Amino acid sequence: MNPTLIKCLIPNLLLLALAGFAYFKAGQFDTGTEGGFVGPDLWPRIICVVLALTSAIGIIAALVSVEAQTSEEDEALESMLAVPETHPRLVWIAVAATGLYVAALTSIGYLCATMLYAMALLVIGGMRRWAMVPIYGAILAIVFTIIFMKIVYVALPLGEGMFKSVSLFAMQLLGIH
After folding, report:
1. How much is the mean pLDDT over the chain?
2. Rounded to a whole number, what is the largest CA-CA distance in the chain?
3. Pair 120, 90: CB distance under 8 Å
4. Torsion of CA 34, 40, 43, 47, to 10 degrees
5. Which DSSP state fits 170?
6. What is the pLDDT of residues 38-56, one digit of tens each?
7. S-S: 112 plus which of 49, 73, 108, 167, CB 3.0-4.6 Å?
8. What percent of the chain is predicted at pLDDT more than 90?
9. 30 three-state secondary structure
10. pLDDT recorded at residue 74
11. How remote is the C-alpha of 78 from its chain's centroid?
12. What value, to the nearest 5°, has the Cα angle with vertex 9 and ends 8 and 10?
């Protein structure tokens, strides 16, 4: 079997198996939902179906695009597709920022933490328009708050002290109850 085909198939097959397993496990939530009500299994199952479809498309694409290639062509293709690590230090800084974000969620709340996290990632990523960083951070935090609290109905941490007051005021302005 073609090594390139194997490299394309294995991740997609693993993700397909994971999606199937997670879909099965999501159906085992012990809830008291009755008669046509949406239960807590809805969103995890939707995500599992999307993941399974994406994996299936990847498998089909890998099988369709398989051509017999010589090892020289494989090496040339791999060298062209290899992405050099240009900024590994920035990646580790972003990972550290993610850790700080997760640690700060309960104390400063989702809205404030997400705004600061988005701003940090924009700066780490090299955004040059410094005046726009707080604006984009606020927009991202508000959009994600609306998505999670008004559409998906996820209870997000409000924070403590003045951060809780800020979160409650922002939720009131956004019409989130």
Report:
1. 85
2. 65
3. no
4. -110
5. H
6. 677 777 888 999 999 999 9
7. 108
8. 47
9. coil
10. 64
11. 27
12. 105
Copy the structure tokens of residue 78: 């791999």
Sign of CA dihedral 144, 150, 156, 162: positive
CA–CA dist 114, 52 (Å, integer): 29
| Chain length of the chain | 177
| Residue type (1 letter), 22 | A
Token code pair at residue 133: 């960083």
pLDDT digits (tens, 9 = 90+) for 56-70: 999 888 888 765 444
SS3 27: coil
Confidence of residue 102 (pLDDT cuts 50, 70, 90): very high
CA angle (65 as vertex; 59, 71 as ends), nearest 5: 110
Query: Tokens in use for 84?
Result: 């050099």
> Which residue in the block uniquely carries the two structure tokens 């290899």?
82
